[in-house]
Amino acid sequence: MRADAVVHVVDDDAAVRQSLAFLLVSDGLAVQTHESAADLLAVARDIDGCVVTDVRMPGVNGIELLRRLKAQGVHLPVIVMTGHADVQLAVEAMKEGAVDFMEKPFDDETMLAAVRGALERQADAAGRQDRAVEAKGRISALSERERQVLEGLVAGHANKAIAYDLGISPRTVEIYRANVMTKMRAGSLSELVRLALLAEMAD
């Protein structure tokens, strides 16, 4: 992690910006806050570190921010914050290049770990390809039903919707979901989605 790396917090809610900045600074991280995606985009070419952004903001939202950063050739790791009902948006964000998503309210230690992981993330293509092949190997070990449940989760569907689509009970989906998490070695839904999307790189 570079000594001059800065965590850029983007949120239109001042209270969220301040509390997240306080958390990160208390962990020894340098922080800069931005009240809109437009503010960040204005300086994006000149910054280093990572970005933590809300997905729902007036004007340029978190998804569009990712697209515009990519269009500018800016390859900063981006963590997206979402509400509990925004899993589908979070999946879309990860498909646009976000490295992680955090559901609000999030645990402080989980956020700090995600930020440090983003700052330390290896950018080399060979390393990404190795991780992609490993993720694909884990998916190949899933049963057909477990893969169907995984596909539903990556699509942002709730357990009840997956159960309806597959003609099984929500409780059975929970069991398959737990099996998928174990076999994929994923500690959270965001990590599971990231692994599934990463596996697509190995195709």
Automatic annotation (TrEMBL):
Residue ranges of domain HTH luxR-type in the record: 135-200
UniProt entry tagged with the keyword Chaperone: no
4-aspartylphosphate found at: D54
Signal peptide segment: none
Entry keyword DNA-binding: yes
Pfam families per record: GerE (PF00196), Response_reg (PF00072)
Gene3D superfamilies: 3.40.50.2300, Winged helix-like DNA-binding domain superfamily/Winged helix DNA-binding domain
Keywords: DNA-binding, Phosphoprotein, Transcription, Transcription regulation
Protein name as catalogued: Response regulator FixJ
Entry-linked InterPro entries: CheY-like_superfamily, Sig_transdc_resp-reg_C-effctor, Sig_transdc_resp-reg_receiver, Tscrpt_reg_LuxR_C, WH-like_DNA-bd_sf
All residue ranges annotated as the Response regulatory domain in the record: 6-119
